[in-house]
Amino acid sequence: MSPLLSGAIAITLVAYGVAMLVACWRVLRGPSAQDRVLALDLIYVIGMLVALVIGLRYASSMYFEAALLIALFGFVSSAAMAKFLLRGEVIE
Amino acid sequence: MTEEALPLWIEVIVAALLLLSAALALGAAWGLVRLKNFFQRMHPPALVFVGASWCVTFACIIFFSAQSRGPQLHVWIIIILLSITVPVSTVLLSRAALFRGRQAGHQDLPPALHPRNARSAEEP
Predict the structure, then answer these.
(1) How many angstroms separate the Cα of A16 from the Cα of each of A86, B38, B87?
(2) Between residues B7 and A30, which one has the greater pLDDT?
(3) Banded pLDDT at B122 (limits 50, 70, 90)
(4) Gap between the Cα atoms of B89 and A76, Å rounded
(5) Which residue, A41, B32, B42, B48, has most beta carbons within 10 Å?
(6) pLDDT digit string, tens, across residues A1-24
């Protein structure tokens, strides 16, 4: 791993961490429930990108499957929460 | 791990894609905090859902393809999965926001397309 690529990966991971913290502020302060769900969805996808970038750092494809699982669980949870906000129950 | 040195131009492309995705993620988080209204705040996360994930996926494809000296396209599944699932959750969230806003009596929302159905949905 050359210093160019590892430096870029470090900067990217720090930027992702900052973005997740900033989105956490919206989760904590969001005036309405759908704001919090939206920010949680964003945090999920950024976490998936973190897994992908770490897999690139260690040149291993195991992290790819973790990223796939995180994406799936993020979709299921945010869809369930949006459905709950819409009707008051998840499965009608 | 037998790690050969990659050509410089591949490393430059991968690093540029990663830095672009980092900038997009920061912009999305900044917009999520700064915008005033929920319907405005729905837009910045699309920078991450589309832009940043495409950048990281292309970086992974280029990196692993250059490392194994052959096309490695499995990371493509991430983009396919996201492009299927993100519109579903986004539309569900926006409908939930419209429904909750109308129930709370906010006046700045667009009117319902079918007022009778909307009223009967709000009755129970």
Answers:
(1) 30, 23, 23
(2) B7
(3) low
(4) 9
(5) B48
(6) 788 899 999 999 999 999 999 999
Residue A92 included in any domain: no
Domain total of chain B: 1
**Full domain range(s) for residue A73:** 3-87
In this prediction, residue B1 carries a pLDDT of: 45
Rg (CA), chain A: 16
Q: Which amino acid is at A7?
A: G
**Higher pLDDT among residues B113 and A20, named by residue:** A20
B1 found inside a domain? no
Do the domain assignments include residue A10? yes
Structure token pair of residue B88: 């579903």
Range 42-71 of A in CB contact (< 8 A) with B: 42, 45-46, 48-49, 52-53, 55-56, 59, 61, 64, 67-68, 71
Is there a domain that residue B76 lies in? yes
- pLDDT the model gives residue A42: 94
Which residues of chain A neighbour B52 with C-beta distances below 8 Å? Answer: 45-46, 49
Q: Do A34 and B97 touch (CB under 8 A)?
A: yes
Print the domain residue range for B47. 8-122
Task: Specify if B114 maps to a domain.
Answer: yes
Inform me whether the pLDDT recorded for A91 exceeds 80: no
B32 chain-A contacts, CB cut-off 8 A: 22-23, 26, 38-39, 42
Q: The complex's ipTM?
A: 0.88
B6 interfacial to chain A (CB closer than 8 Å): yes
Interface A-B, measured as beta-carbon pairs within 8 A, has a size of 157
Q: Is residue B2 domain-resident?
A: no
Contacts of A24 in chain B (CB under 8 A): none
> Which residues lie closer than 8 Å to B92 by C-beta, 6 or more apart?
A79, A82, A83, A86
Name the residue facing A68 among B33, B64, B78 (closest C-beta). Answer: B78
